[in-house]
What does this fold into?
Amino acid sequence: MSDDVIRVGVIGVGRGESFARGATETVGMKLVALCDTWEERLHEAGQRHGVSVYTEYQEFLEHDMDAVILANYFHQHAPFAIQALEAGKHVMSETASNTTLAEGVALCRAVERTGRVYMLAENYPYTVFNQEMRRVYRSGEIGEALYAEGEYNHPMAKDSRLRLAPGVNHWRNWIPSTYYCTHALAPLVTITETMPVRVNALSIACPEVNRGTTRRGDPGSVILCRMDNGAVFRLMGLGLPGHSNWYRVHGTQGAMEITRGPGYFGPGQVRVWHDEWHMQPGWVRDRVYTPEWPEHGDLAEQAGHGGGDFWTNLHFAQAIRSGEQPFLNVYRGVAMSSVGILAWKSALQEGAPMEMPDWTNEASRAAYADDHWSPWPEHAGPGQPPSSILGRLEPEPEALEHARRVWAEMGYRGE
Ligand SMILES: NC(=O)c1ccc[n+]([C@@H]2O[C@H](COP(=O)([O-])OP(=O)(O)OC[C@H]3O[C@@H](n4cnc5c(N)ncnc54)[C@H](O)[C@@H]3O)[C@@H](O)[C@H]2O)c1
It folds into this structure.
């Protein structure tokens, strides 16, 4: 164990701002550098934090620091992670860890080769509700998981969506409906400590929902995961009308869920219930309550995403100090991200089952080392998939014209 402060650099000053703010003394971190290609935003952020700024990632990696947090584009995390690991840095990566199976193989190998800490910055397992469901599950009260549901469905107003997706080929304009699945899945994996072994999915296309935007992906999907204990998990997302974020687990002795209701991270409560024939001495048949943080409640309350943004920084710092990989390690990160990829392969075949390799095992994962199947425009070529089940879509000219005005207003100068 070392008590030295961990010097950290962040790439991407959009979402990255939350990590930059969270790199505090309390978690034993200090922000020392920022990197972004959007110079105006980068310099503003650099001044706000009083740290060095870089537009070139290679130069940024040469800065004297221990760890790098990746909040660059969603579909570019793996190559940036591998470069940072090779440069001797510990890495915490925004979701997704990888957006091709080949990247997943390369990332697992890089973490094993370098021995650096790698963590997927999944913040949804850390809400007070999901931490409480993990505690209840580990107490054994609902038994072994048989079925679970996770929903992360985040529709947005058209102009808000455009502002978050500057550029015709921005990843948010292309992302297939299954790829952003880790917010729905990671809490369930963290609660039950199970891993997905097979995936089926159906995608929901609806030009009406996309109308007026530059989005070419389908707005929604349902994914089924067979887990390594035989359970089935159902995931739902991503941008269907009606914002919802919700989790539920049924076990061999009872069930638990976050109660549904208005609001994003609240005012939900946790409900744990049993059928009468499963009751054991000391159990309550059906209880609904507001959970408490296990610790650090005051600090978590101040952080974004229901406290999750505090916990990811804390657990990353703790992993570096202890030298032990965190729970959300490279194998779980790659497996959960690969659910999105395999689900898209499945959705394009109207639900065919897809096998998940064992990412901890070189013999199992090696078969995917050259699987560069990818929906992203920069990987376009023969055999590459569209990002809608309706095929390759183009935005309507009026929507594109409007989008370009919105992007120009916010200072975006690209295509
Ligand atoms: N966990 C959460 O709650 C949460 C919330 C929002 C976003 N995210 C994730 O954070 C990541 C970033 O998302 P975002 O919302 O900030 O939008 P974004 O993807 O548009 O922002 C990425 C930033 O990285 C910069 N960038 C891209 N390529 C670069 C390069 N080669 N060198 C330097 N800088 C580069 C861009 O200029 C931009 O400022 C995504 O993976 C997203 O999924 C997670």
